[in-house]
């Protein structure tokens, strides 16, 4: 195909003397030859053929990899593609690593989208949420082990996705949090199933869910929510080492058989939990005050994510604020600008009022 617009126009002028026709043809070329900008994929799939491992990366760093419907569709399609490749032996992969791009694993569900559901019928929202969960939790249908390399905050639905993996490895600055109740919403994405599964069904587990707590990486490991914490900047490297051990250092047949056995037991009650969560979240969306907790979080255009935590210096419950990908505590803000401290204190106070 000729790509030189001037050459094509000259050929057109030689055949037609009508200047109007030439003008229209040039306008047509300007719309058809202009390069089309394409949004980057929200989910990336790569393979390490030597190690026989694959990696899926959540790729929306500007929103701290918030889980959206669009990302869910791409994630589900990616899992299906990888499943087909494994089943047809198109690639030799024996383990999957799941991680996030940028400074976070995932900030959880898209809060603005969740807020928009308040005007939808209950049954529509219940089915919509169930399908949303399944679009990400389909990762558990893969016939190979899944390792979550949690490279930063994993909050809400993002934490649930991390816990759905067979092995979870944390970076030192990772936070694993379940702030559903502080947003005025029931736990979702299997949170009420996976958290008790990982740490045991006990009073501390109940407290984390009911208070909407955020765990530090050390707390998460101590409670059995995650397997280990590694040195800063080494979480993906460690995940790759563990994945290689599973892929090359053990019988792939034995590993796949054990994965089926482990998940068969772990998935008992999961479907019931997902339906229950979807139903209860839909009830929350129908409340007149639904969205007030989200408004407190979204107040201020630059706020992307707010994480509850305990600040030892202040001795009170405060928030860890992530703005433009940078994580700050109240003390960080106090050192920079005292006015910011008062503003965020007010936001935090409103977010706890129900």
Task: Describe what this molecule looks like in 3D.
- The termini are far apart.
- The protein has 354 residues and is of the alpha/beta class.
- The chain has helices spanning 5-15, 19-32, 69-87, 111-116, 122-137, 157-163, 191-199, 203-211, 217-222, 235-248, 252-266, 270-285, 292-298, 330-336, 338-351, and strands spanning 43-48, 53-58, 95-100, 146-150, 154-155, 167-170, 175-177, 214-216, 228-229, 303-311, 316-323, 326-328.
- The longest helix has 19 residues, at 69-87.
- The model is unreliable at 1-33 and 300-354 (pLDDT under 50).
Strand and helix order: HHEEHEHHEEHEEHHEHEHHHHEEEHH
Q: Trace the largest sheet across and list its strands.
A: 1-2-3-4-6-9
Compute the average pLDDT: 80
Distance between the termini: 64 Å
Using the CA coordinates, give the radius of gyration.
24 Å
What form results from the Cα inertia axes? Answer: globular
> Main sheet, how many strands, which sense, barrel?
6 strands, mixed
Into which percentage range does the β-strand content fall? 15-25%
Number of strands: 12
Helix content: 40-55%
> Given the helix and strand composition, which structural class is it?
alpha/beta
Low-pLDDT windows of residues: 1-33, 300-354
Distinct helical segment count: 15
Name the features.
354 residues; alpha/beta; six-stranded mixed β-sheet; three-stranded mixed β-sheet; 48% helix; globular; disordered N terminus; disordered C terminus
């Amino acid at each position: 195909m000729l790509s030189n617009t001037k050459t094509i126009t000259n050929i057109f002028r030689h055949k037609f003397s009508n200047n109007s026709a030439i003008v229209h043809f040039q306008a047509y070329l300007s719309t058809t030859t202009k390069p089309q900008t394409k949004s980057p994929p929200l989910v990336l799939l790569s393979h390490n053929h030597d190690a026989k491992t694959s990696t899926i990366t959540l790729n929306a760093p500007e929103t701290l990899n918030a889980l959206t419907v669009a990302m869910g569709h791409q994630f589900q399609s990616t899992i299906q593609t990888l499943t087909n490749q494994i089943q047809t032996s198109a690639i030799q992969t024996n383990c999957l690593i799941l991680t996030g791009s940028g400074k976070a694993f995932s900030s959880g569900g898209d809060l603005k989208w969740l807020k928009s559901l308040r005007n939808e019928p209950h049954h529509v929202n219940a089915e919509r949420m169930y399908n949303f969960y399944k679009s990400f939790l389909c990762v558990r249908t893969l016939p190979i082990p899944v390792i979550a390399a949690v490279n930063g905050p994993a909050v809400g639905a993002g934490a649930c996705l991390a816990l759905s993996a067979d092995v979870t490895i944390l970076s030192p600055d990772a936070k694993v949090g379940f702030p559903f109740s502080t947003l005025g919403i029931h736990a979702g994405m299997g949170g009420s199933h996976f958290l008790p599964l990982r740490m045991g069904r006990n009073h501390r587990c109940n407290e984390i869910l009911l208070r909407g707590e955020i765990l530090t990486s050390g707390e998460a490991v101590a409670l059995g929510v995650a397997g280990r914490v590694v040195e800063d900047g080494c979480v993906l490297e460690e995940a790759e080492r563990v994945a290689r051990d599973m892929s090359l250092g053990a019988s792939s047949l034995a590993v796949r058989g054990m994965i089926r056995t482990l998940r068969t037991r772990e998935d008992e009650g999961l479907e019931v939990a997902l339906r229950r969560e979807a139903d209860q979240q839909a009830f929350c969306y129908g409340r007149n005050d639904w969205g007030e907790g989200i408004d407190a979080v979204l107040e201020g255009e630059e706020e992307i994510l707010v994480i509850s935590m305990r600040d030892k210096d202040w001795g009170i419950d405060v928030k860890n604020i992530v703005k433009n990908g940078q994580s700050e505590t109240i003390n960080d803000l106090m050192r920079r600008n005292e006015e910011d401290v008062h503003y965020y204190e007010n936001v935090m106070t409103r977010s706890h009022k129900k």
